[in-house]
Amino acid sequence: MAWLILTIAGLFEVVWAFAMKQSEGFTRLWPSVVTLAAMLVSFGLLSWSMRTLPLGTAYTVWTGIGAVGAFLVGVVFLGETANALRVTAALLIVSGLLLMKLSSPA
């Protein structure tokens, strides 16, 4: 259950990163509200998952989901480039996340 909660926390990290970009430096109300709400949910779920998962594993996976998710959102919705080097970097992050999962006792 902790892994599912952690995954959802990571997805909310992607939501708040995207909303923060849309808030234009917190100058737009609703994207700013979404950013803050998604941050609270993301941090709360991360905290919950840390009841069971080791700190290093939980935090690394959470930030990794956020990083790769934000990269994908940037490419798909914001027209950011997806060159070979950036895609390779994202794949390396995903590889690291899988290794963290496989090496975790929980």
UniProtKB/TrEMBL annotation:
The cellular location(s) given in this protein's UniProt record come to: Cell membrane
Q: Which UniProt keywords apply?
A: Cell membrane, Membrane, Transmembrane, Transmembrane helix, Transport
Membrane topology per the entry is: Multi-pass membrane protein
Signal peptide (UniProt feature, chain positions): none
Q: Which residue ranges does UniProt annotate as crossing the membrane?
A: 27-46, 58-78, 84-102
Which InterPro entries does UniProt cross-reference here?
Answer: EmrE-like, Small_drug/metabolite_transptr, Small_multidrug_res
Q: Which Pfam families match?
A: Multi_Drug_Res
- Enumerate the PANTHER family for this protein: GUANIDINIUM EXPORTER, SMR FAMILY PROTON-DEPENDENT DRUG EFFLUX TRANSPORTER SUGE
Q: Which NCBIfam families match?
A: PRK11431.1 (NF008512)
The record's comment on protein family reads: Belongs to the drug/metabolite transporter (DMT) superfamily. Small multidrug resistance (SMR) (TC 2.A.7.1) family. Gdx/SugE subfamily.
Designated name of the protein: Guanidinium exporter
Which species is this record about?
Answer: Siccirubricoccus soli
